């Protein structure tokens, strides 16, 4: 079986089993971008609490949040964990957009994919997964987001070995699937779902997994 065919079968099985995941939760591209930073090293429930704090305070806009000092911002996002570090990363991102793109978030997110990735990776505290999450979910540009679940699932199904890095895994998907925002969005969400519920780091439930037998 070709790699492309196997990736298609994985996607079909997961979609049939779980149904559409309706990712990424967020009312605006800015909110999605903020969520991509806040979700580093925490679960989404904690991020939602932080975002609710910001919304309740009327701060869910680039202008309002960029005007906050670090201590104030850290207080609002405290539920997301590592709040001082994340406040600094958000401020680094806001400063980059303000200083280099005149604070025009829409224009920034409309940059060509590779240029946008370069810009995001130039921001201290923004790594490949966060950058690609912003590109896919906030900018609506086709790029496949890789995370620990993706590596674990592909390794256990003998598509990759342990040495595969972020960009090698990303190439595997992008070379074998049609570049489509909706497909990449749904596929990533489904991999996270099966990783959390079945393909766990310890004590995986292979017998009940929708990918059993592949």
UniProtKB/TrEMBL annotation:
A molecular-function term among this protein's GO annotations: DNA N-glycosylase activity
GO biological process entries: base-excision repair
All residue ranges annotated as the HhH-GPD domain in the record: 38-197
Superkingdom per UniProt: Bacteria
UniProt xrefs under CDD domains: ENDO3c (cd00056)
Hydrolase among keywords: yes
Pfam family, one: HhH-GPD
UniProt KW Iron-sulfur keyword: yes
Ranges of residues in domain Helix-hairpin-helix DNA-binding motif class: 118-137
UniProt keyword terms in alphabetical order: 4Fe-4S, DNA damage, DNA repair, Endonuclease, Glycosidase, Hydrolase, Iron, Iron-sulfur, Metal-binding, Nuclease
Family indicated by similarity: Belongs to the Nth/MutY family.
Record-given protein name: Endonuclease III
């Amino acid at each position: 079986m070709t790699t492309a065919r196997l990736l298609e079968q994985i996607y079909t099985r997961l979609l049939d089993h779980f149904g559409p995941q309706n990712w990424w939760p967020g009312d605006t591209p800015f909110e999605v971008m903020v969520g991509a930073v806040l979700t580093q090293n925490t679960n989404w429930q904690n991020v939602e609490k932080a975002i609710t704090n910001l919304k309740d305070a009327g701060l869910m806009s680039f202008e309002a949040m960029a005007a906050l000092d670090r201590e104030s911002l850290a207080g609002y996002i405290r539920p997301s964990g590592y709040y001082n570090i994340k406040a600094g990363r958000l401020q680094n991102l806001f400063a980059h957009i303000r200083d280099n793109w005149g604070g025009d978030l829409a224009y920034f997110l409309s940059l060509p994919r590779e240029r946008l990735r370069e810009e995001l990776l130039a921001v201290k505290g923004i790594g490949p997964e966060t950058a690609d999450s912003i590109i896919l979910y906030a900018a609506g540009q086709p790029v496949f987001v890789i995370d620990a679940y993706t590596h674990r699932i592909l390794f256990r199904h003998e598509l990759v070995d342990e040495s595969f890095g972020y960009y090698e895994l990303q190439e595997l998907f992008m070379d074998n699937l049609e570049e489509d925002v909706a497909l990449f969005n749904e596929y990533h969400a489904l991999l996270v779902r099966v990783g959390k519920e079945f393909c766990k780091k310890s004590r995986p439930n292979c017998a009940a997994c929708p990918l059993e037998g592949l």
